Amino acid sequence: MSSPEQWTHPEPGAGPAATAAEPTPEQVIAGLRATTEGGAELTQLLTPEGERVASAQFDPYVSDVDDEALRNLYRDMVLVRRADRESNAMQRQGQLGIWVPLLGQEAAQIGSGRALRPSDMAFPSYREHGVAWTRGVDFRELIGIFRCSDHGGWDFKHHGFHPYTIVIGNQVLNATGYAMGQKFEGKVGDDNGEATIVYFGDGATSQGDVHEGFVWSAVYDAPVVFFCQNNQWAISEPTERQSRLPLYQRARGYGFPGIRVDGNDVLACLAVTRWALDECRHGNGPVLIEAFTYRMDAHTTTDDPTRYRLSDELEEWKLKDPIERVRAHLARGGGADQEFFEKIDAEADSFAAELRDFVFNMPDPPPERIFANVYAEPSPVLEAQRREYLSYLEGFAGSEH
Amino acid sequence: MAAPVKAKVDGAAGAVQNLTIGKAINLALRSAMEADDKVIILGEDVGKLGGVFRITDGLQKDFGEQRVLDTPLAESGIIGTAVGLAVRGFRPVCEIQFEGFIFPGFDQIVSQVAKLHYRTQGRVKVPIVIRVPFGGGIGAVEHHSESPESLFAHVAGLKVVSCSNAVDAYWMTRQAIESDDPVLLFEPKRLYHSGNLRAEVDTTATPDPLHVSRVVRPGDAATLVAYGPSVKVCLDAATAAQEEGTSLEVIDLRTLSPLDLDPVFESVRRTGRLIAVSEAPSESSLTSEIAMRVQQECFYSLEAPVLRVTGFDTPYPPAKLEEDYLPDLDRVLHTVDRSLAW
Ligand SMILES: Cc1ncc(C[n+]2csc(CCOP(=O)(O)OP(=O)(O)O)c2C)c(N)n1
Asked: How far apart are the C-alpha atoms of A389 and A359, rounded to whole Å?
């Protein structure tokens, strides 16, 4: 285990508070603190203006990221954002039952996802379309969930990407168990070790499952990275409804390191997640990462954020856009020219058009699907229900049903 | 059967309003909070947002943040703290966002809510209401369309009810809050805002007791029994059958625990036929219990076995298939035909 002295957050109460001054009760309720800068402890490698910030601790973790690698990260984010916007629009047109937007969270997802190796395992919640992309699951494979024609059909072992989890917090324990398995099989201990990462939101940190995951992973030294995307809101409730303490500081209470990273900084997310995975690979146990970010769109397409959110907060976060800062950095340093940006935009356009085409032509599942795969072994009761229902449907054959 | 709960009658005379089910529950919460300052609401997003279905709309604004609590995102927390609040003398009304998310709170419901009164030999009362939007038909993703009510009806110490219309929605909410026992109120979410189900709610009326079932359409060829969202399906089926000359009786169960089956027995003794309708899977469910009790009480009156129209014994399917999964008018009529042909 790493020693507490090496942990990157300060003792509670030591030095300048990691967040802004104590909020008034009104601010707490209004969620105003959401617009603060993330505090002195925020790890950042690229400022919102696209300036590179040096970090003795984290630079080594991105020493291989040259202009080309940065262009790839930029491309990832642009494609994922475009697919996200297209999906949002398709929901409005009735092609999808619901959409869960990731707008604003591209850097947290691409940065952390690109830190993973094929042998690692990721456990998402339901908003991790960007992480899915980095694991080779593209939008076509997951959009059926939102078209309500399947529950998620990708091969999770092949992709190292667990099925989406909608029940808040459940997946944190599942990931912990998976990581315990990696450890029990002796897959940790050196540079080639395996690790698990699990994604959840700031709201999820209130669930018992998440606390239990923290306890179990600490007790069994499980190689799991807890990646909390603090997008400031759990539907209508601000982070302050879940915690009095900056979330990353909770880790200390469980006995492992916690760190807050600028979730709109793809480079910092990549570096910090590589570091955390490295801790896990070497057998140093769990790490909590709080990616401090912002949900730029509604919680889902059924939500109405105008009821609870403040527009100045939205304006402030627009200035911290995760894609714009990489673009500024590349443009300023000559890492990419106008032609490159235009090429990526064109690629995004055709990517979105293909997705659209795919969704519009997606067949509905047949009724037999209801009865398939309920059990691994055949169930006579279900087989009878299936036969009875299909023969009932037969009765309508030829009629207008 | 337990003595019916007497609802207090509102002061305002002639207070009749035309309401949807959702608005009726909102009004009931409001009047209960006005009548008793120990009534408080707990749940996720129930404050500014007014709940994801807007059932608590405007209540936090008028009653403040200590009576309408936007809670941390934890169902075990919502229900577990409600137990403590109830012990302290409050009357908590918990909102569970969707039925599929009640399970993190299942332990508290089964282990504490249901058993405290019994374990303390009556010294501790648990006047908690747990409101649960349930059922399918809204085109949602996983965990947003289930019907887990049988799991709760099976637990001794809980009262479980379900409304199917605006008048009941109003009164059941009021009566559940006034009950000294824990009540789970299963609300048919797809009907919350249904304009067709608007009804005149007279808040000064004397309502039916909470724990009785009711004949909502008389008939003599066969009996349909249902609750919550399936009541409307059965009423529509009865209307369609009438056009072909078949008169169906429809009973709204209303109370799922304790079950009030006397009106069902009485009906089946006349019609000789029973079809139980529910969205829940059939195995070991409320419809199983109904079928068993009816065959026990009405054995010599039955002209056909008790039949059921239910969800299948599968997880709730992707919503593109929910029309197949959910009992609909056609499946009900098909089953009526089978019963009549026996
Ligand atoms: C156990 C459970 N309770 C309630 C819900 C309904 N719900 C869905 S998302 C959500 C808010 C989640 O907020 P957060 O954990 O911060 O994640 P975010 O959506 O912001 O990424 C809620 C309450 C749920 N899915 N699961």
From this structure: 28
- Provide the terminal-to-terminal Cα distance of chain A, rounded to the nearest Å: 64
If one counts every other C-beta atom within 10 angstroms of the C-beta of residue A191, the result is 7
User: For A306-347, what is each residue's pLDDT tens digit?
Assistant: 999 888 888 999 999 999 999 999 999 999 999 999 999 999
3-state secondary structure of A289: strand
> Which residues, including other chains, have CB under 8 Å from residue A155's CB and lie 6 or more apart?
none
Distant-in-sequence contacts of B194-200, Cβ < 8 A, 24+ apart = B194/B20, B194/B21, B195/B20, B197/B20, B197/B21, B197/B165, B197/B166, B197/B232, B198/B18, B198/B19, B198/B20, B198/B166, B199/B18, B199/B19, B199/B24, B199/B165, B199/B166, B199/B167, B200/B16, B200/B17, B200/B18, B200/B167
Q: Cα separation of B242 and A185, whole Å?
A: 67
Provide the token pair at B333: 């009529």
Closest ligand 1 atom to Cα of A205: 15
Angle between helices B229-243 and B329-340 (to 10 degrees): 60
- What letter does residue B138 receive in the DSSP assignment? S
What is the Cα–Cα distance from B140 to A31, expressed in whole angstroms? 29
pTM: 0.94
Question: Which are the catalytic amino acids of B?
Answer: 144
Number of the ligand 1 atom closest to the C-alpha atom of A239:
16
Does residue B170 contact residue B25 with C-beta atoms inside 8 Å?
yes
- Write out residues with Cβ below 6 Å of ligand 1: A 127, 166-168, 201-204, 229, 231, 233-235, 295, 299; B 44, 73, 75, 97, 101, 104
A248 is catalytic: no
Nearest Cα residue to atom 20 of ligand 1 = A234
Tokens 């593209």, located at residue: A138
Sorted by sequence, the CB contacts under 8 Å of residue B293 that are 6+ apart come out as B259, B261
Question: Token match 């399947």: residue?
Answer: A150
Which residue from B74, B313, B325 is facing A206, i.e. has the nearest CB?
A: B74
- Which residues lie below 8 Å from residue A353, measured CB to CB, with a gap of 6+? none
Q: At what angle do helices A322-333 and A67-92 cross, to 10 degrees?
A: 150
What are B136-165's pLDDT values in tens digits?
A: 999 999 999 999 999 999 999 999 999 999
The order of strands in the sheet holding A196-201 is: A121-123, A196-201, A224-230, A287-292, A258-262
Nearest to A352 by CA among A80, A147, A136: A80
Q: Where are the alpha helices (DSSP H) in A208-305?
A: 208-219, 250-254, 266-281
Query: What are the tens digits of pLDDT across the range B35-69?
Result: 999 999 999 999 999 999 999 999 999 999 999 99
Residue with CA nearest ligand 1 atom 21: A201
Beta-bridge mates of residue B201: B17
State the Cα–Cα distance between residues A269 and A78, nearest whole angstrom. 17
CA–CA gap between residue A114 and residue A122 (Å, rounded): 11
From the list A33, A81, A135, A299, the catalytic residue is A299
Cβ distance A100 to A126 under 8 Å? yes
A300 C-alpha to center of ligand 1: Å? 10
Which DSSP symbol is given to B109? I
**B314 touches A386 (CB < 8 A):** no
What's the complex ipTM?
A: 0.92
Angle between helices A322-333 and A338-360 (to 10 degrees): 150
Q: Which residues contact A379 (CB under 8 A, 6 or more apart)?
A: none
CB contact under 8 A, B101 and A167: yes
